[in-house]
UniProtKB/TrEMBL annotation:
Domain of life: Bacteria
Presence of the UniProt keyword Transferase in the record: yes
Lumazine-binding repeat locations: 1-95, 96-192
Annotated Pfam families: Lum_binding (PF00677)
Pathway(s) per entry: Cofactor biosynthesis; riboflavin biosynthesis; riboflavin from 2-hydroxy-3-oxobutyl phosphate and 5-amino-6-(D-ribitylamino)uracil: step 2/2
InterPro entries per UniProt: ATP_synth_asu-like_sf, Lumazine-bd, Lumazine-bd_dom, Riboflavin_synthase-like_b-brl
Biological-process GO terms, alphabetical: riboflavin biosynthetic process
Signal peptide: none
Protein name per its UniProtKB record: Riboflavin synthase
MF GO annotations: riboflavin synthase activity
Acetylation recorded as keyword: no
Enzyme class: transferase
Gene3D superfamilies hit by this protein: 2.40.30.20
């Protein structure tokens, strides 16, 4: 479990293909790895991955073909938002994030709006119903608040701090982003559907 509050921006240092799967070496940048051990989870661009090996300032993870299919992937030398798994004693500064990407969105607009930037994303049709104004959504692992919703499109304001401390500053129109909708919305839909079926 994660919060969507990014702790460091790392880089994919190496990609070792293993048939349809791959092992990645992630340069952890300023992420403190002193309390990380093999078997621990780290969210990389919003994808919960298991650490299989540790270096002095890096860690390795195995990525399955299914993960590549459901996400934007991990190109070599690409920047990745990093967050270690939540501990029960941690502050919940964002919202509860599982690290299970629900789908891939497309950036339609990314431009200055005063001191901030406006980001407009098109969600896949089956996810759009879970996106609500003033609700939470995770974009490349970053917990964000939705400003407006128009059909399958939604907009977000990104403050300078978010742009400085995540990889979202690299976005541009046509960029693909990992999306995870608020898990509470999924539970609510399941409860309502179950009630209607009984």
């Amino acid at each position: 479990m994660f919060t969507g509050i990014i702790q460091a921006v790392g880089k994919v240092a190496a990609v070792e293909p293993r048939n349809a799967d791959a092992r990645l070496v992630i340069d952890a940048a300023h992420l403190d790895l002193s309390d990380v051990a093999p078997g621990d989870s780290i969210a990389c661009n919003g994808v919960c991955l298991t650490v299989v090996a540790l270096g002095a300032a890096s860690f390795s993870v195995d990525v399955s073909a299914e993960t590549f299919r459901c996400t934007t992937g991990f190109p070599e030398h690409g920047l990745v938002n990093l967050e270690k798994a939540l501990r029960l004693s941690d502050r919940l500064g964002g919202h509860l994030v599982s690290g299970h990407v629900d789908g891939v969105g497309e950036v339609l607009h990314f431009a200055p709006a005063g001191d901030c930037f406006e980001l407009v994303i098109r969600a896949p049709g089956d996810l759009a119903r879970f996106v609500v104004s003033k609700g939470s959504i995770t974009v490349n692992g970053v917990s964000l608040t939705v400003n407006r919703v128009d059909g399958d499109r939604f907009s977000i304001n990104l403050i300078p701090h978010t742009l400085e401390h995540t990889n979202l500053h690299t976005l541009q129109p046509a960029s693909r982003v990992n999306l995870e909708v608020d898990m509470m919305a999924r539970y609510a839909e399941r409860i309502l559907n179950y009630r209607d079926q009984t």
